[in-house]
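dumping this here so i dont lose it
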């Protein structure tokens, strides 16, 4: 095995870059879950899958990225054998769940756009698919408890026993596991997702051409659905592209067994892969106006609460009022009459308008409240 190490300047750069990825990924995915939970218009079957993706990335941010960040900064593993196995297990399991959910999303979009009347994925089916995806992913990642352990000096989390085992009987199952992971996580889903999105965009393009030829008779795909498909396809494509270098290095390691875990190549590949967790919420916000609106509402919620406390005199809120937005009307309204500015209460202003401009036969009843639903 060749002795390779990461240059100091690269360690500093990757540590800063990894810290930014960690913060953006964690806060972004928590924001995605919060926005979908609070907004009824975003609680669709597709966004249930998006919530599952966000939970996978949050798990990665909690149990994988911090340990990789410390290992990159110190250039050794200091968390013991169990955390070596557990973090790698969750790394494989969360990635497998992400790929499985992305595959489910592509199939869902395929039937929703091309065969909208023949098949529909309901919420109950969506939940079952998510549970099944996580179950298969946990089973797929469980061999990591066997193939990962600390090195002889307990300062490195070795990959698949390839450099510590002298027995070929252990190297062969480890190599088979690497090829199996690559085939199940990258190859098969990548082919299926590519075929489904190719078919979807061919269908959309065909309808677009028909729209130009027969403007009145063609049924076009709504622009919102097209934009949503573009967003989901970009999420899928970026996930596969960012994780591809990591799996290529795994295959190279199986073949030549000459890469060090903390070499520059491995360090760059690992953090390129982890950056996919930060990219997904960014894409949601860029492509989806509802997500942007929800993020603005959450970011401004504290300011709105303070504003409402200063402007409301509500002693009891009904169930209907709690579910709907409540606005305010200022009690003092300025108006100009004969060049002079005067103030009138809300009631007086509305009463004057009702009697004078609208010619209503009766004045408004006295009402002390100044809120409306």
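and the seq i came up w/
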């Amino acid at each position: 095995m060749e002795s390779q190490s990461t240059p100091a300047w690269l360690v500093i750069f990757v540590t800063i870059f990894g810290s930014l990825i960690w913060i953006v990924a964690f806060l972004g995915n928590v924001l995605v879950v919060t926005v979908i939970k609070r907004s009824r218009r975003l609680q669709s079957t597709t966004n249930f899958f998006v919530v599952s993706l966000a939970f996978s990335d949050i798990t990665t941010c909690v149990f994988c990225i911090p340990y990789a960040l410390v290992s990159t900064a110190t250039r050794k593993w200091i968390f013991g054998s169990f955390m070596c196995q557990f973090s790698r297990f969750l790394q494989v399991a969360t990635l497998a769940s992400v790929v499985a959910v992305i595959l489910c999303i592509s199939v869902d979009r395929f039937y929703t756009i091309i065969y909208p009347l023949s098949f529909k994925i309901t919420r109950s089916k969506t939940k079952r698919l998510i549970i099944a995806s996580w179950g298969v992913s946990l089973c797929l990642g469980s061999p990591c408890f066997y193939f990962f352990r600390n090195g002889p000096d307990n300062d490195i989390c070795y990959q698949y026993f390839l450099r510590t085992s002298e027995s070929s009987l252990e190297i062969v199952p480890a190599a088979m596991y690497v090829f199996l992971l690559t085939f199940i996580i990258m190859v098969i889903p990548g082919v299926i997702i590519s075929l489904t999105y190719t078919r979807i965009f061919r269908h959309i393009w065909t309808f677009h051409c028909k729209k130009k030829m027969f403007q009145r008779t063609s049924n076009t795909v709504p622009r919102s659905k097209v934009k949503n498909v573009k967003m989901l396809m970009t999420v899928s494509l970026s996930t596969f592209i960012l994780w591809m270098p990591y799996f290529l290095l795994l295959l190279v390691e199986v073949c030549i067994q000459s890469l060090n875990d903390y070499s520059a190549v491995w360090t760059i590949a690992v953090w390129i892969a982890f950056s996919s967790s930060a990219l997904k919420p960014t894409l949601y916000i860029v492509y989806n106006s509802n997500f942007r609106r929800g993020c603005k509402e959450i970011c401004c919620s504290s300011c709105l609460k303070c504003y409402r406390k200063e402007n409301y005199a509500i002693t009891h809120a009904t169930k209907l009022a709690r579910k709907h937005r409540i606005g305010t009307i200022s009690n003092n309204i300025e108006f100009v009459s004969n060049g002079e500015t005067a103030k009138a209460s809300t009631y007086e202003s509305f009463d004057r308008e009702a009697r004078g401009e609208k010619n209503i036969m009766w004045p408004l009843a006295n009402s002390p409240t100044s809120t409306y639903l």
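Residues 168-213 form the longest helix (46 residues).
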